[in-house]
Specification:
This protein is mainly α. The protein is built from five helices and two strands; from the N terminus they run βααβααα.
């Protein structure tokens, strides 16, 4: 990444970061995976909802599949690390891998 959009700083500054530095690190790594250009934009930073992702029931479709593939590749297919990077449980990752036929 060459640049970080100024709005990213504002968005990150307003967030509480209950997970502290580790959560921030994971958030930035995830944003880099999602980034399509050389600028990190606020849209790449999804801050935690009140309901954990593994408890939410929604379909991310093709974007979700791409994100899971990218996380697996970035972690050399270590499912535990990929799940942590995606901020979901290992079981939720396994379900999505099966759903998207990524095994």
């Amino acid at each position: 990444m060459k640049h970080i959009d100024k709005r990213v700083y504002k968005k990150l500054h307003q967030y509480d970061f209950p997970g502290n530095v580790r959560e921030l690190k994971n958030l930035v790594e995830r944003a880099v995976i999602l980034a399509t250009g050389s600028i990190l934009k606020p849209d790449y930073f999804e801050l935690k909802n009140k309901i954990p992702l593994q408890e939410q029931n929604f379909d991310l479709g093709e974007q979700g599949k791409k994100l899971i593939k990218a996380a697996l590749q970035k972690t050399d297919f270590n499912k535990m690390q990929a799940a942590k990077l995606l901020n979901i449980s290992r079981q939720a990752l396994d379900r999505r891998i099966k759903k998207y036929n990524l095994s």
